[in-house]
Amino acid sequence: MTFQIMSDLMKEAVPLAKKMEGDWQARMKLAMRSVKINYFMSQPISKGTINELLKHGVSYRRISRNYKVGRSDITAIERQ
């Protein structure tokens, strides 16, 4: 992820965090997590994308529903 992409994601996350209540660091952490997941979900399916989504706590079910592939297809891509 390049600096420019990360900067754009931060620009999306700040207004989202401002709408939430509570501690600023916690709000920003949740907003960044949400924005990063949305960013990776918009990318084409690949081994790296799947690994990043799993690293951020996205379930296999959500990945399979987003990309309209079965779980066996996801594990096959992971093994490549």
Explain this structure to me?
It is a single chain. The protein has helices at residues 3-19, 24-42, 47-55, 60-67, 71-79. With 80 residues, the protein is mainly alpha-helical. The chain has one domain (3-79).
Specify the structural class.
mainly alpha
- Largest sheet: number of strands, sense, barrel closure: none
User: What form results from the Cα inertia axes?
Assistant: elongated
From the alpha-carbon coordinates, what is the Rg to the nearest angstrom? 14 Å
The total of helices stands at 5
Oligomer: single chain
Unreliable segments (pLDDT under 50, ≥5 consecutive)? none
Strand content: under 5%
Return the average pLDDT rounded to an integer: 94
Termini gap:
21 Å
Keywords for this entry:
80 residues; mainly alpha; 5 helices
